[in-house]
Design goal:
By secondary structure, this protein is mainly beta. It has a single domain, classed as N-terminal domain of TfIIb. It is built from 1 helix and 5 strands. Strands 1, 2, 3, 4 and 5 form a 5-stranded antiparallel sheet that branches. It is globular.
């Protein structure tokens, strides 16, 4: 993540859950993603805003 990329609000990250499993998310700072281990999906963070749409998520292998 570059210095130019805004980071999401830490308080917001504490409140967010996976929209599919309602389980916890892990913040991956390096990839700018929120990772749901249970759903095997990584939700992107764009301009500091988490995109919590399963269609926009990257599948984890």
């Amino acid at each position: 993540m570059t210095a130019e990329t805004p980071q999401p609000d830490p308080k917001l990250l504490e409140l967010l859950v996976c929209p599919l499993t309602k389980g916890p998310l892990r913040y991956d700072r390096e990839r700018a993603e929120l990772v749901s281990e249970s759903a095997r999906l990584a939700y992107p963070i764009r301009n500091g805003i988490p995109i919590m749409l399963p269609a926009e998520a990257r599948r984890l292998d």
